[in-house]
Every structure is written in structure tokens, then in C-alpha cells.
Design brief:
Blueprint (H helix, E strand, L loop, with lengths): L4 H14 L9 E8 L2 E6 L7 E4 L5 E7 L4 E6 L10 E8 L1 E3 L8 E2 L17 E3 L22 H6 L9 E4 L5 H10 L7 E7 L3 H13 L6 E6 L5 H19 L4 E7 L1 H14 L13 H9 L13 E9 L8 H9 L2 E5 L1 H5 L12 E2 L8 H7 L2 H15 L7 H17 L9 H12 L11 H14 L2 H10 L7 H22 L4
Parallel strand pairs: 8-12, 10-14, 10-15, 11-12, 11-13, 13-14
Antiparallel strand pairs: 1-2, 1-6, 2-5, 3-4, 3-6, 4-5, 7-9, 15-16
Length: 511
């Protein structure tokens, strides 16, 4: 066989031109054991805490436990295709998710992969899932209202942009309904919404997405799903991933609303992972750092200072209690982190009061600072009045004779309770709420039959919009019902005249 020198020379020349003096250096390890969403890996001596590692089938894992002879890895995907002896590569990167306008209107998993069949999320920007929360100097006090459209919430436990308001109660008491109404009410406000479903049934999540889509809320909402059938590692990281997507908008100077539904399930997933990793169990078998698990998440919700752009993340974490036990471990932890709680009581729910908010236990630590002035003027003492009404109601059940003044307070309390009832998916405009509360607290409903309070309110709003739009606009412009300035006194006189006129029209209707 004869060699051709020019051919050999051309091959050598090509090899020299394409030669890259780069060595592929990777930190690799071997899987010692795998199962239940975790793997124990030998090697990976240079791996960082929470660094991403890659398995042969492309599944991503997170370095969770750094031990003396091995690394405990939580597997973010299907662990059934991973076998003992498989090679594991470290990536040198921390876990991140896609962010930006491209995620709005999408249904994603906690890693940012689409679940809605609309193709990949096309964005070049990513954010780390775990970041340090803004410091005290980077924040400002919560003063700007974040209207939920729910009368009971906006009047008695108002929420401000940058606040963390816990929704707590037993299962099936309407916790998710409050959060979904708050999302629907953000339409045309520019607030970006993120609904993070953790450990929920797929059928329940599908119902929520459909409700949002029907009301046009999916245009500005991202749904992150980590359902009941999802491995525990994905349920654990889902809230952090959703918050990272919301932080993109906060740092741009925009506003976001994040609903965590619910953090009880996330804590249970974290407990499962920690026990499998043989971390020492503490109270109720939760690991010692379960408080830090929630505090580092919820502290990322804030109102940034003007120097930082003034953006905000408002969060509505949901916690499920068992038999109303708010003193259990996880509920007390989250109550101590948040800026107030909305407590939903099963007895009230089954008695037909929706939302079933217990006004005695529910509180907002921001208070009137997160309300418009007119709302503050009409609902200032409402919470205390209703708490006193509940006590009076319990006393009246003893069958004692009541004097006229006490009976009058009872009658007004029944009408206020009726006035605060609200259907699902029908959030109310804040100015309509102000008018309703004004009529109720000033005694204009005292002579209306309790069963017709809802009908009266609905008709009154229609009357104000259609026949007295100039008075309604005056309320928006003046925004003061304290009655101290001339403008305020004039506005009150106009509203009183409108109510008197409407009362005449309402009384002539047939019952």
C-alpha cells in the first residue's frame, strides 16, 4: 500500500488548525444509592452547597447535604431512570429559572419548563432561585394599598404593596378563593401575579387555572405547578422558583403579587427530604431549620426604597390548620414571620358567611396605612364593633331581655355581617366598598330587612353608577369622609342625599 504524502500533510494541517488546547475538566462522582427522590453520591469533592449536578439521563439534582465521604443530592425530576453506579457531573452553577415577560400567561413547573403545551419559554434572562432578601436600608414602609376586592379584607385587614398577609384556616374554608379573588382584582392595575400550587390535586389546580382564564386574569398571571404527584424536591423548591420570577419585576420597579398555596405542604416536603437525608428531626419531626426555610422565602417580599426603584412583592402565603389548631408548629412559625393573618373559621363558613373571616383573630400589622383615606374614615372602628357584636350575640342567646339600645346594636351587627358577605370571583371596586361601608356604619341599613341587604347594596351601586355618577366621581376626587373640611362636608351631604333618594326608590319595590 502506497501512502500519499500530500494527503497525510493536508490531514495533519487540518488537525493543527482545528486543535483546541482545552482540557475537559469536570468534577464527577458515582451514585452509591438512589430512591425516594434522593441520591447519595461518592466523589464530587469540590461541589458547592445547592449546586446543580447532572445525571446521565439529563436529570438535574441539587447538592443538598455535604457529608465527609459522600454528597446527598435531591433529584429534581424522575429518579426511576437513575441507577447505582451512574456517573454524576457537577455543573459549577446554582439553580436558576427563566424570568421576564415571557413567563406571564404561562403554566410552568418549578424549573420553568412549560406544562401548557404552548412551546418553550423564550427568554434570555434567568434568575437564581435562592437569593438573599433585601436589607433594611433597601426597603421602605408599606403605605401603598393593594386592593383585593374583598370587602371583609379591604375594610378590616387591609393589605399594602410589599406586605406578607397570611391566609390560615382548616381545609375547605375558602382560603384559595380569597387569593384567587385578589389575583382577579389586579386586572388593569399593572400588578403581575404568580400562583404557586404546592402539593394540590391536579383537578383543583385545573379548576383554578380555568377560573383565572375565564376572567381574563391569565394575561398577567404565571401559574407554577408542583402537584401532589410531583416528587418532594420539586415541591420544596417551587415557592423559591416562583419568587425568583416575581423578583425580576420588583427590581424593574414594578409590582408583583405571589400566592403560595400552600406552605404547609412545602414544609412537609422539606421534612420528607430532611428525614431521608438523615438530618436530625426536631418538633413534629421537622428539621431544626424549617423556620429558616420559610423566613428566607417570605423576607424576599418587600417594598423597595425609591433609590432601588420602588418595586414590590406582596405575598399571600396560605397555611392549612387541623381542627383550627393555630398553635401548631408550622402555623406559629409563619404567623411570626408575616405582617398579619386572615383567619378563616369553619363554623362561620358552614353558617353561610363567605368569606368566613374571624374578625377577632384576623389582623393586619400595617393597618390603616394601607388604606385609601375614605376607606379609613368609614371603616375605622368596624373591626372592634364586629368583635363586640359577636360577644353581644353570644350573650343574647341566653334568652335575656335586651334594652332598645342593645337590640339596636345587635340589629346593626346582623346587617353589617350580611353586608360583608361576598360571592366568589366577584371582587368589588374599592369606591363601591366605601359607599357600602358608609351606608352600613352610618345606620342607613337599620330599617332594611336583613334578607334584602344584598339586594339593597347591589341596587345602590347601580343607582350610583347610572344616576349619580357625578357624586361617585366627587368621592374619587375628594377621597375624604371625615367631615372636617368644607369639601368633605359637601361630599357627605351629597352622599346622604343620594342614599335618601335611593331609599325612596327601594321602598317602593315589591318584596
Amino acid at each position: 500500500m502506497k501512502f500519499k504524502a500530500d494527503e497525510i500533510a493536508s490531514v495533519l494541517q487540518k488537525e493543527i488548525e482545528t486543535y483546541q488546547s482545552q482540557i475537559d475538566v469536570r468534577d464527577v462522582g458515582r451514585v452509591l444509592e438512589v430512591g425516594d427522590g434522593i441520591a447519595r453520591v461518592y466523589g464530587l469533592s469540590g461541589v458547592m452547597a445547592l449546586e446543580m449536578v447532572e445525571f446521565p439521563n439529563g436529570t438535574i439534582g441539587l447538592a443538598f447535604n455535604l457529608e465527609e465521604n459522600s454528597v446527598g443530592v435531591i433529584i429534581l425530576g424522575d429518579f426511576l431512570d437513575i441507577s447505582e453506579g451512574d456517573e454524576v457531573k457537577s455543573t459549577g452553577e446554582l439553580l436558576s429559572v427563566p424570568v421576564g415577560d415571557a413567563v406571564l400567561g404561562r403554566v410552568l413547573d418549578p424549573l420553568g419548563n412549560p406544562l401548557d403545551g404552548k412551546g418553550p419559554v423564550v427568554t434570555s434572562e434567568r434568575r437564581l432561585v435562592e437569593v438573599i432578601a433585601p436589607g433594611v436600608a433597601q426597603r421602605q414602609p408599606v403605605r401603598e394599598p393593594m386592593q383585593t376586592g374583598i370587602k371583609a379584607v379591604d375594610t378590616m385587614t387591609p393589605i399594602g404593596r410589599g406586605q406578607r398577609e397570611l391566609i390560615i384556616g382548616d381545609r375547605k374554608t375558602g382560603k384559595t378563593a380569597i387569593a384567587i379573588d385578589a389575583i382577579i382584582n389586579q386586572k388593569d392595575t399593572g400588578v403581575k401575579c404568580f400562583y404557586i400550587a404546592i402539593g394540590q390535586k391536579d383537578s383543583t389546580i385545573a379548576g383554578v387555572i380555568e377560573a383565572l382564564r375565564e376572567r381574563g386574569a391569565m394575561d398577567y398571571t404565571t401559574v407554577i405547578i408542583s402537584g401532589a404527584a410531583t416528587p418532594a424536591p420539586l415541591q420544596y423548591i417551587a415557592p423559591y422558583a416562583g419568587t425568583a420570577m416575581a423578583e425580576y419585576f420588583m427590581h424593574k420597579g414594578e409590582h408583583a403579587l405571589v400566592v403560595y398555596d400552600d406552605l404547609t405542604r412545602q414544609a412537609q416536603a422539606y421534612r420528607q427530604l430532611s428525614l431521608l437525608m438523615r438530618r436530625p428531626p426536631g418538633r413534629e419531626a421537622y428539621p431544626g431549620d424549617v423556620f429558616y426555610c420559610h423566613s428566607r422565602l417570605l423576607e424576599r417580599s418587600s417594598k423597595l426604597s425609591d433609590a432601588m426603584g420602588g418595586g414590590s412583592i406582596t405575598s399571600l402565603p396560605i397555611i392549612e390548620t387541623l381542627e383550627g389548631e393555630v398553635s401548631a408548629y408550622i402555623p406559629t412559625n409563619v404567623i411570626s414571620i408575616t405582617d398579619g393573618q386572615i383567619y378563616l373559621q369553619p363554623d362561620l363558613f358552614f353558617a353561610g358567611q363567605r368569606p368566613a373571616m374571624n374578625v377577632g383573630i384576623s389582623v393586619s400589622r400595617v393597618g390603616g396605612a394601607a388604606q385609601i383615606k375614605a376607606m379609613r374614615d368609614v371603616s375605622g372602628g368596624l373591626r372592634l364593633d364586629l368583635a363586640a357584636f359577636r360577644e353581644l350575640e353570644a350573650f343574647a342567646q341566653l334568652g335575656t331581655d335586651l334594652d332598645a339600645a342593645t337590640q339596636g346594636r345587635l340589629d346593626r351587627g346582623y346587617r353589617m355581617i350580611e353586608l360583608l358577605k361576598q360571592g366568589q370571583y366577584v371582587p368589588m371596586d374599592v369606591w363601591d366598598q366605601v359607599l357600602s361601608m358608609y351606608a352600613g356604619t352610618r345606620g342607613h341599613l337599620d330599617k332594611v330587612d336583613v334578607k334584602r341587604v344584598g339586594e339593597w347594596e347591589q341596587g345602590f351601586h347601580t343607582f350610583m353608577r347610572d344616576q349619580k355618577s357625578e357624586v361617585r366621581q366627587e368621592l374619587v376626587d375628594v377621597n375624604d369622609l371625615a367631615g372636617k373640611s368644607d369639601e368633605s362636608k359637601e361630599l357627605i351631604a351629597h352622599i346622604e342625599a343620594c342614599i335618601a333618594e335611593y331609599q325612596g326608590q327601594f321602598d317602593t319595590k315589591k318584596v
